[in-house]
Amino acid sequence: MTFLHPEPGRGWLNLGEKPLVETPWFQLKQAEVALPGGRQVDHYLLRVPPLVLTVVDGQDRVLLLWRHRFIPDTWAFELPSGIAADPAEALPVAASRQALAESGWEPVQPRLLLTLHPYSALTDATCHVYWTRQAIHRGEPAADFEADRIDWVPLTDVQDLVTSGQIRDPSTATALLVLAATAAARGPAARSSG
Predict the structure, then answer these.
(1) pLDDT at res. 8
(2) What is the pTM (predicted TM-score) of this model?
């Protein structure tokens, strides 16, 4: 497989940004951008703190939250997730904290599975997806308002859940499809041995 590498100076160049709206969750900014060929345009963008998601993968099933998202007014499964707003907090620690708060399950030693930039034309949002095979049930979730229910879903159901619209979040879908494909490639004996 051949990958193309950009030539220096051929991409869009951010010449500077001015803040329009600033909140603890995001900053809306207007950037002055130089396009290849020299033309300059204004471009709006969202700057957000890193997002963390956690895949708890136990015995070929994953921990998912059935949630309502009021902005698009949809119900779907998602991974436990949240904003890593404190730059002093390590991302795996933030991922574990968020998963525990939303599910009542505390991930043990989560490892980075992948990093995504799901909306790179509009935002610098970076989704860090962590993965673990072990979690400890600590009780009812502190943030019990985050999910209508918490389910352990078979990894083999992931593709059908994505295609049927029961998983809509792109970071959740990508992480689970990668995990399902990897598990299928390893085969049942390798999955059971961990």
Answers:
(1) 58
(2) 0.85
